[in-house]
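Standup notes
- DV: blocked on the single-chain target, sequence here:
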Amino acid sequence: MQRTERTDTIVRRQRGRATWLSLAMAALMTATATACGGPFQDLGPLPPRFSGPPLPADTVVSEMTAALAAEGVMVARQPSNTLGRCSERLSGRHASQSVDSALQAAFARARSDYGWQAGPDLGSGTLTLTKGNWTVVTSHPAAPVPSQGDPAMVVMSLTCLDPGGPTATPAPAPGT
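- DV (later): unblocked, structure below
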C-alpha cells in the first residue's frame, strides 16, 4: 500500500504544478494581449501603391519603345490577351554582340528622359523599371553561339497595378 500512496502523492504534486503553471500562463497571455492591444488598432486605409494618376498603356508603350529605338533596339507591341489585368509585351530583335549594352542604355534613357525609376532587384541578368502604376521587366538574352550570328531576341513585359484605362481616349463633345 505504501507504493500506491507515494504514487498518488507524486501525481497530486504534478497536477498542482500543472494547475499553477496553466494559471500563470493564462495571466501572462492576458497581460500580453492587453499590452499589445495598441498596435492592432485600425489605422485606416493603406496608402496607394503608386502616386499620381494611373498611366495609360499607350503612354507607357510609346515611352519604352522610344527609349529602345533611340539605342537602336526595334520592338513591336504584342497583343495583350490577359483579361482583368493590364499587361503589355514588346518584342523584337537586335544584334547579339551589343544587345546587353543597348538594353542597359535604353533603360538609363528611360530613367533620364521619361522619369522612370529603378525597379526591384530581381537578380543578375534582369532589368526592371517602375513608373506610376507600371513595372517593366526584361532579361538579358542568353549568349548566342558565336558561329550563328543571328540577332538576339528582346522581350519586355510591362505590367500595371491599376489599369486606369487601356488607352487614352478623347472625351466626347458636349451635347452628343
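- Follow-up: The two ends are 104 Å apart (CA to CA).
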